[in-house]
Give the backbone structure.
Amino acid sequence: MTGLIEPLPAGPLPAGVGAVLVVDTGAIIANWNLLRARHPGGAVAGVVKANAYGLGATIVAPALHGAGCRHFFTAHLTEALAIRALVPGAMIAVLNGLSPDAASVFAAYDITPVLGSLSEIAAWGAAARQLGRKLPALLHIDTGMARLGLDAAELARLAGAPELLAGIDLRFVMTHLVASERPEDPLNALQRARFATACAMLPAAPRSLANSSGIFLGAEFISDLARAGAALYGINPMPGEKNPMRPVARLQARVIQVREIAAHAPVGYDATWRAARPSRIATVALGYADGWPFRLSGQGAAIFDGAPVPLVGRVSMDLTTYDVTDHPAIQAESWLEVIGPNLPPERIAEQAGTTPYEILTSLGARIVRLARAA
Ligand SMILES: *Cc1c(COP(=O)(O)O)cnc(C)c1O
């Protein structure tokens, strides 16, 4: 299996696997510790929505929990239930809020909803009365994102009727920054000020403000709980500056076949690429059905033994082709690195015209995820 970067975790790979995503849990923990050092006086939660940004929530959540992380965020209730038993005692908060049919499930499994409207507050308060005990919740205030959270009118109504929160144990009041990747954007300070005003109108409770990039905006953005996703997984929280985070994800795809083609022969759908010389083409088991972007067609390169290997032709559903004419060591059963320390998600995203968040969260279910504790 030439090109497969050692050491892989113990145990053989599943037979016939096409692509392997090696997740460096030691790097995730190092990144969490770095974020904690940058967020003194407040905790740092692990945001593990979307299967921990594609890396595998059942790998990431227990690793962070083992390091001492006691706050987790998912987007969906189903995602919270999937990790409930893996992070005993920890808060698991659901960012998308309390759907009307779900209150009893939240309560039964000790999942904490992020309440984002007066109707959600009413539903959770009613559930608390029915159960005869206080129920934990976060309260989401909209300070500029206009997606979820109480708007100014709802906030004013709640401030005038704090009894609406009866039965609710308010763990954190939170808001979400719109432009934290751009420190110069005046929206950051505006949202911080609006958030401070909102908190002053509400019963005293701990606060949660920064996401990954927000942690790097300075001391005014430190709160009781930061909510970090991207930076934990190695994505640069300060685009344009040197990435302070350690790389976490390494995606390797298996070469299924290598073939010789004549000069001028086309490769792939619609014959978008033709060999300029007699060539060797390697076909790997990774395609857009695995979340490998179609937009990479004809662009970029994989890495083999430290050297770039150009991608040629169209990315297809299950396969991608590379020109390995200059890499005689690449054979069937070789492994090409397509994301990794030398090919960060940021680079792939730039080539595919998207964000590194989308590159990682798109990685599909056929990819085998393996934890590697560095
Ligand atoms: C996704 C999300 C986060 C995490 O953001 P990162 O930029 O990945 O750190 C934090 N808060 C909310 C409300 C989110 O939706």
